[in-house]
Amino acid sequence: MSRYITLFALLLAFAPSVSAKDLVFAASEDYTCLESGDEPKAFPNPFKGKITINHGSCDKIEICTLLGEVVRTVHIPLNDKSTQLDLSELKKGVYFYVIKENSNVVETRRIVKSE
Q1: Distance from C-alpha of 63 to C-alpha of 68, rounded to nearest angstrom
Q2: What's 91's DSSP letter?
Q3: CA 95 to chain centre
Q4: Among 60, 56, 69, residue whose Cα is nearest residue 96
Q5: Strand, coil or helix: what is 16?
Q6: Considering the domain 2-113, what is its CATH architecture?
Q7: Apex CA 88: angle with CA 8 and CA 68, to 5°?
């Protein structure tokens, strides 16, 4: 996992025209936590302190640095489809949120902390 995030960091550093949509990766398997039509989304993005992440019925979210270091792990209660996180302690910069089901990566997306 961390080697993929490091690759993403290199893409961001050397290709300023890369957008967040270019960095959307889904697992090859079809997981039941994301129902048909569900798309993970984080808002507001960029964020200052709190961010809401729509994650379907997946069971865990990890917030990672560009180098793959996990800075926050959130276990999601059953039947919750979105979670609000207070990430005000994080430094300004680019992070990734990783949505997992049964320890398998379902989706990885980029988020930006503005202040």
Answers
A1: 9
A2: P
A3: 8
A4: 69
A5: coil
A6: Sandwich (2.60)
A7: 25
Q: Check: CB of residue 56 under 8 Å from CB of residue 39.
A: no
pTM of the model: 0.72
Domain locations in the chain as residue ranges: 2-113
Contacts of 90 (CB under 8 A, 6+ apart): 63, 71, 113
Q: Is 94 helix (H, G, I), strand (E, B) or coil?
A: strand
31-79 confidence digits (pLDDT tens): 568 776 678 899 999 999 999 999 988 999 999 999 999 999 999 988 8
Instruction: Write the DSSP assignment of 57-90 as a string of letters.
Output: T-SEEEEE-TT--EEEEEEPPTT--EEEEE-TTS
Contact 72, 102 (CB under 8 A): no
Answer whether residue 2 shows pLDDT above 60.
Answer: no
Neighbours of 25 (CB within 10 A): 14
pLDDT at 88 over 60: yes
